[in-house]
Each structure stands twice: as structure tokens, then as C-alpha cells.
Amino acid sequence: MAELLLLNSESATNRLVLLHGWGADGNDLVPVGKLLTEGFKERFEIVSISAPQTHPSGSGRQWYPLYPHEWEEVPNAVLDLEKSLNNLCFKSIPLNKTLLLGFSQGGAMALELATRKKFGGVFALSSYPHPEWKPLKDMPPVFLCHGKTDQVVPKTASQKSFDILLKNGFKSDLYFFDGGHEINNDLIDHCREKIKQEFLS
Fold it and tell me: Which of 108, 109, 192 is nearest to 157 (CA)?
């Protein structure tokens, strides 16, 4: 089962859920979460989830095996993650006040969860769509961001997600930034602006 790391729970009215990339863990995106939510008058609870499987290197975690890709494990990985999310109290902070952000493999998992839960919005950074991924009606808005020089997950992967969303009639947003497989200041500024415009205005 995935592990949850919670910050700023008291008196929060909004929530940011973080899904890390392949080989990282729940601590990895916490500094990013703080940068994305600090300074707003709305108080955010930050929830960072550690993937349940040990990375093959022995350190870090994975949502499912990637090299080679074991796509058949994706449905169970998504179900497990959904169960972990259901442990959060959505009475105190409702889903429409909850943002989901995933990076790389975590971004692919975020795209899956976007078809299952009506978050306020979903940010998929440096991500890719799983082979069978299909958007469903009533999905939350999806914000795709990718480094122009990403050599780990090519930017065409986010373009593909964007094209699938558009073809199915969904509102989406695709942002390419100067950088590689990373979360840099440009990307953080962009995401903060989106959060402010789309969710806090």
C-alpha cells in the first residue's frame, strides 16, 4: 500500500496531492509543493504519496515496473493509489478544492486518476499517457507541462496526451518550458499562476 505524508493539515481549506516519479519517493516533491502553495491566502494541505513498490535499484519507489514496461500492472497500481486517496478526509476538504500533481511516472498515474475522480484540477508534468488511456466525460481540467529538451520522457509524450484530450473534446492546456526532465523555477511560476487563475480567483 502507498504511504501518505501530510503537511499543514490544520485549518487548510485546499489540498495539493503529489505523485512522485520513478525512483523517487514521497519526500521528493514536498519542496515543490511548498513553493507552489506558499503565499496564497488560501491555506493548502500538502499530501505527498510514496509509491508502494521498491525501485529495482533498491532505493526509491515505483508505481509499477518501467524497464521493461509492465503495462498490465497499471490497472492494479491505479486501484491501489485510489484506495490510498480514499483514506483522505474529503469532508473537510472536498475534491473540488483538491489539486493533483504528478511528475513523470507520477504524472502518468495522475492522468489515470483524472478519469476516476473529479479533482479541482490535474497537473501532469513531464508525463506520458499509458497505452490504453482514454479521457472520460466530466473529467477535471488537465494541465500538461513538459521540458523542451527532456531526454528521459520526450515532449512528444505530453503532446500525445494533449491530442487525445482535444480529440475527445476536453479542455486542456499544454506548456513547454526551457529545460529537461526537471521541475525548474519557470515551471513552478507557470503552475502557480495557473493555480491562482483557475482555482483561487
Answer: 108
> What's the mean per-residue pLDDT of the chain?
92
Segment 145-181, tens digit of pLDDT: 999 999 999 999 999 999 999 999 887 899 999 999 9
The CATH number of whichever domain residue 35 belongs to comes to 3.40.50.1820
The widest CA-to-CA distance across the chain, in whole angstroms, is 45
Crossing angle (nearest 10°) for helices 185-199 and 30-37: 50
Q: Which domain holds residue 49?
A: 3-199
Spatial contact of 101 and 110, defined as CB atoms under 8 Å apart: yes
| Per-residue pLDDT tens over the stretch 102-112 | 999 999 999 99
Name the domain count of the chain.
1
Count Cβ neighbours within 10 Å for each residue of 55-94 and write b for 16 or more, e otherwise: beeeebbbbbebeeeeeeebeebbebbeebbeebeeeebe
